[in-house]
Amino acid sequence: ALCWLRAVPCRALGTCRTLDLEAARLRRIEAVRGQILSKLRLPAPPPEPGPAPALPEEVRALYNSTRELLRQRARGRQPEEPQEYYAKELLRFPMESPGDGEG
Fold first, then answer.
1. Which of 32, 60, 64, 99 is the most exposed place for a label (fewest CB within 10 A)?
2. What stretch of H or E contains 6?
3. Any domain includes 88
4. Does any domain span residue 99?
5. Mean pLDDT per 10-residue section of the chain, whose length is 103 residues
6. Boundaries of each TGF-beta propeptide domain copy (predicted)?
7. 44 and 33 in contact (C-beta within 8 Å)?
């Protein structure tokens, strides 16, 4: 009888399905993706963006010249003095004269 009691738990564990953690993870990812698409009111994910089109040479030249001009202006400008801080000293003003708060 003792052998029978030991065999029962083993058989009970043997009928349990093993968890496939990778499949569960993928199902969860798909569920979240579906929720996001639903919130964005999209039927399917947008297509992957392709490579950016090449900029025209005129635009690239204008951008580079603007950057160079800003660098030259920054080099020619004197470093700014830090602005005066208005509260260098702490001044205390009593809100009640002595004796007014008693009462």
1. 99
2. helix 2-14
3. no
4. no
5. 51 64 93 94 88 89 94 80 67 71 56
6. 14-78
7. no
